[in-house]
Specification:
It is a single chain. The protein is α+β, with helices and mostly antiparallel strands. The chain folds into 3 domains: 3-97, Roll (Ubiquitin-like (UB roll)); 104-225, 2-Layer Sandwich (Alpha-Beta Plaits), CATH 3.30.70; 282-460 and 484-506, Rossmann fold. It is 24% helix and 19% strand. It has helices spanning 19-25, 88-103, 119-127, 162-170, 202-206, 269-273, 300-315, 331-344, 378-387, 395-404, 424-430, 489-501, 510-518, 525-528; strands at residues 3-6, 9-12, 49-56, 62-65, 70-71, 82-84, 143-145, 150-153, 176-179, 186-189, 212-214, 227-232, 241-247, 250-256, 288-289, 320-325, 349-352, 362-363, 369-370, 408-414, 435-440, 452-455, 464-467, 473-476. A hairpin with an 8-residue loop joins strand 12 and strand 13. It is elongated, with a radius of gyration of 28 Å. Bound molecules: iron/sulfur cluster and FE2/S2 (inorganic) cluster.
Length: 548
Amino acid sequence: MPSITINGRPAEFEEGQSILEVALAQEQEIPHYCWHPGLSVVANCRICLAEIWAPNPRNEGKLEPMPKLMPTCQTMAQDGQVVYTDSPKAVANQRSVMELLLINHPVDCPVCDQAGECYLQDYAYRYGRASSRFEEEKIKQPKKDIGEHVLLYGDRCIMCTRCVRFTREVTGTEELMVQGRGATEEIDVFPGKGLDNELSGNVVDLCPVGALLDKDFLFAQRVWFMTKTPSIDGITASGDNISVEHNNGTVFRLKPRPNASINKWWISDEIRYGWKFIHDESRHVMPMLRSRDEWPSPKAAEAWTASMEAATKGLKSDGRLAMMVSPMLSCEDAWHLGQMALSIDPQAVIGVGPVPFNGEDKSFPGGYTVRAEKAPNARGVRRVLSALGIDVLDAVGMEKALSSNTSIDRVILTGNYPSEWVTPSFADAVGQERFLLLIDTLPNSLTSRADVFLPGATWMEKAGTFENVDGILQSFEQAIEPVDYCKSEAQIAMDLQSALSGQKPTVFNAAATRQAMASQAALDRFVSDVTLPKVPQTVESDMSIIEL
Ligand code: SF4
Ligand code: FES
């Protein structure tokens, strides 16, 4: 395999890789602003320049220096090259670039949302000059509202053009442009046309500095206070890899995690901002009985005990049980709910809840697709219930069964949708006479009808597995504790099954459930094929903590 040497460290590479890519692949830092793996290479920021020596075939292969510093993002690796980004010439260039970029920068880090994850801050520390020689007046750029989700603080822009290339190469919408020349050039939108596409929030992630800001996250939280938990999109069938960023049980934002075969480096605005229902004020976070509306919070234990007793009592009957498992739930939830239902009634009528669709899949030139299917796990729920030997109905089939099968006298419904999911015809099919146990999050037209309501946990409040639209199984971790007195549907199912059988309750564990599921031949994929998120690397502080 061909190899090059970067700052004295040998590195093998594959044909077609740039020197920067080779360095990054072996976690060797070369500073870079304008280069991004998902965009074209323009080599305009000049911070990645290196001194390169290469074998000259016309001089018996002797190593000779290239006449000037070369951009490592644009120069392809060639066997035998020797690259220096720490030579006096390369270091002098890095310092000059940093000095130039900071000439007009307001250095307003204390009030900048990007502080703590800003390349300009990091590189100023590692590659910059300690002081500025600039004594003239700084050029001031305006702050602009450039789209529904994005603000532009032009002062902080370093003109890397990542954002412009994104709208040209990935979305194909071309809203952003470079306006003006030289020291007064700026990023702008075309007159009368804002940044308005389904992927617009990605420009905020792409911006290496604090020039493009997310209105939704503006001044909401300092980034160093937040914990990042790897997760999977929980509101569409895309299976997009995301990172949930949260602090003290509150989620503040979602960011994409790169996955070349699913979402590349992007997520849609729908996924980025569609999680707000988990902190919705109208969310039901306490168990409820039809005879009692509210449970004062200090009596949560009493509320759960009384509700579970009522649920257990109501589920015991000689008639038929019907249960609908929502496609918003995880495979592990479906497994425990299915087992619980079969333990109550081996002939139970079981189906998957309604799967919302919105138009058709929409693909962008950069290869990203916004999925029309707005549920994360319809396939996974169906797969798991089928493996339990259940003849799984769809939502229409369930509605018909509820309308026509008079022997059904107990119904368990699960929701967990980000918006209203109960149609009038479905509510009619459930009727008024049957015992109804509703496990849900947001209020809907069946909430007050339910004999027992148990508050479920959204996907960020539990661990589990989703099967996406392409049949890819991906696990996600629990990001935050369940809000108030909510519980995962899997835990509720396990508790109900224990109460009904008189056995000791057990605590839900997603990995153990997957192991149990994989003991069924039809579900052995749950051990062999599930993609688990990489464990994030711990970043050690470069500053010592001093006790005052
Ligand atoms: S706004 Fe950000 S991404 Fe766009 S050119 Fe400026 S620094 Fe680069
Ligand atoms: S990263 Fe190479 S020139 Fe910008």
